[in-house]
Amino acid sequence: MLGTAHPVQAEGAQPSTILPGAVSMHMGFGDGYKRATLSWESTPLWSYQFSGRGGRLDLTGELGVSYWWANKDRNPRNAWQLSAIPMLRYWATEKFYLEAGIGATVFSGSGFAGKNISTAYQFGDHVGAGYQITPSDRIGVRYSHFSNAGIKRPNPGLDIIQVTYTRKF
């Protein structure tokens, strides 16, 4: 299956001469904190079209920068984060998708919102769903969990639910 897959371009999409892909904005809410993210998403690096009405599976790369801020007296009150996430996106129809990804992230410190997350390096686990509004615009919802996978204790993790908007160019 993987050996027969090849990159595909959505029907009617125009290739970009600058930097193909998409830009997405995410706004998330967690337990006493918020997160705003700006990401660049690659065009599909790999794609597999299932036979019949089985849908399509795409693999894309997602590079992002996020700003986190905590409510009231939780210290440290803010943090920056860089992320690199390979995302698998299953298109059940031409409009509806499910997505999942696991990747590396780096925080600006090892503490945030009253939590000692022990390491600046964290793994990000993501699951979501969305809808293609137009050939260039997509909206979705995503749940993300960040933790150091037990590399060092304590490892409380950070959880966030996000609303996403993506614009292809």
Automatic annotation (TrEMBL):
InterPro entries per record: Lipid-A_deacylase-rel (IPR018550), OMP/PagP_B-barrel (IPR011250)
Coiled-coil ranges per UniProt: none
Domain of life of the organism encoding this protein: Bacteria
Keywords: Hydrolase
Predominant cellular place of this UniProt entry's protein: membrane
Hydrolase among keywords: yes
GO molecular function, one term: hydrolase activity
Name listed for the protein in its UniProt record: Acyloxyacyl hydrolase
Species for this entry: Cupriavidus basilensis
